[in-house]
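Suppose you are handed only these lines of text.
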Amino acid sequence: MAKSAPLPGTSDIFPAEIGAWRFLENTARSVFERYNYGELRTPIFEATEVFQRGLGDETEVVQKEMYTFDDRGGRSCTLRPEGTAGAMRALLNTDVLNGVEQRVFYIGPMFRGERPAAGRRRQFHQVGVENVGRVAPELDAETIAMLLGFLEELGITGATLKLNTRGVAADRPAAAEALKAYFSKHIDLLCEDCRKRLQGNVWRILDCKVESCRNIIADVPDYAGMFSEESRAYFQKVCQYLDWLGIKYEIDPFLVRGLDYYVHTVFEITHPGLGAQNAIAGGGRYELTLPGESKPVIGVGFAAGMERLLMVREALNLPADGGIQAPPCVFVAALGEAAEEFKFKFTASLRKQGIAAASELAGKSLKAQMRAANRVNAACAVIVGDDELSRQVAVLRDLAGGEQKEVALGELESEIKKLINK
Ligand code: HAM
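From them, the structure of the protein bound to histidyl-adenosine monophosphate can be written out as follows.
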C-alpha cells in the first residue's frame, strides 16, 4: 500500500474525476425530479437499532458488515450501510404512516465492511429513491421505469432487469416449509453456509453462488405458486404495467435480495460489463419497521451503486464526464510591478462576473506563466506588461487558435466574453 493510499475499499475522488460523478448526480436529479421526487439528506450515521430493526437481525449486512461504534455517550451508532432505513426514520416525521405519499431521493456514501474486490467497496456511493406511504402495483412499475429511464439517460445499454415476488409475510411460512422440505432432501450436497441457512433463513439459499448448491436450487418447487391469490395478482399487475411501457424483464425465482424488509416485488439490474459484482441497482417494495414503532413504513424504491455505474459507462466506452465541460478559463499574465496590481485586481473582477480566471504567483517569467496557463487548460490569456498598461491596452491571446491582438483595457472584458463564448 502506497504511503498515502486511502484505506482498502475506500477511494479519493480527485478533481479530474469529479466530472463523472457530477454527471451521474445531475442526471439523477434531472430524471427523478421529473417524477416529482425531492432530495433528502439524512445523517451518515444512525442509532444501530435503526438498521438492526429496519434491515433485520438475520441479514448478512447487519450480522457481518456494519461499522458500529460508541457515540461517546454509551449509545451504539452505525455508519449507514444503505439509505432506506435512515430515510424511513426521517419520514416518520411526516404523514407516511397514514398513507400520505412521499417521494424522496438521496445521493451519498454508504459503508459496508465487505472484503474489497472489483466493484465491491467498504465506502461506496448510492443514488437511491423511495416512494413511501402507499401500496399499489403501478407505483412499483413506475419506480422500475424511472430506474430504467435513469440508466438510459446515462447511456447505459445492455442491462438486464430481473424481477421476482417475495409475497407478503403471511405467504411465507408455507412456502418456506416447502423449500425446507426440498433442501433437506439434498442437504449433503449443500455448502456449509446453506446448511446453516436451512435452519436460519431458507430463502437465502436461493441466491447462493456455490456451484453445487446452484444445481440443487435449479429444481426448487414453485414457491411463488403457493402465495395467496392476492399476492399473485399483485405481481401480475406489476408485470402488466411494465408490459404497457414495453419494458423487458426476466422473472427470476432465485432473486430474493439480501435485506429482510422486502415484500411483493423485488428487482435487480445486472450488466455484463461488470465482473462478479454484476448488480448495478436493486430494490423492491418493503415494509420496514423502526425501533419503537408497531406499524411498518411501507414503500417501494431502489438504489444504484455509483461506482458500478461508472464502471459500466467505462466498459461501454462512454465519456466519463458525460460531455460536461469545465467552464473556459482566462489566464492573466503580468510582467512588471504595475502589471502585477492589474493582474491581481483583474482576475478578481473576472471571477466576480462569473468567469473562471487563473494566474501565476508574482515574479515568474512569461514562459513560466504560459506553462501555468497550459496546466489549467486556459482558453485564452491576457498578457500585460508595464508598457502595455501605460498605453491602456493588453494583449489578448486565443490559446486554442494561437491568434493574438492588442485590446484597449476598456474593451477587454467584452472581447474576452466574445472569445470564450465562441
Ligand atoms: P442493495 O442491493 O444492497 O440495496 O444495494 C444497491 C446497490 O448498491 C447494489 O446493486 C450495488 O450496485 C451497490 N452496492 C451495494 N454494496 C456495494 C459495495 N460493497 N460496493 C459497491 N457497491 C455496492 C439497497 O441498499 C437497498 N437499500 C435498495 C432499496 C431502496 N430497496 C428499496 N429501496
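What can we learn from it? The first helix runs from residue 15 to 34. The CA atoms of residues 283 and 312 lie 19 Å apart.
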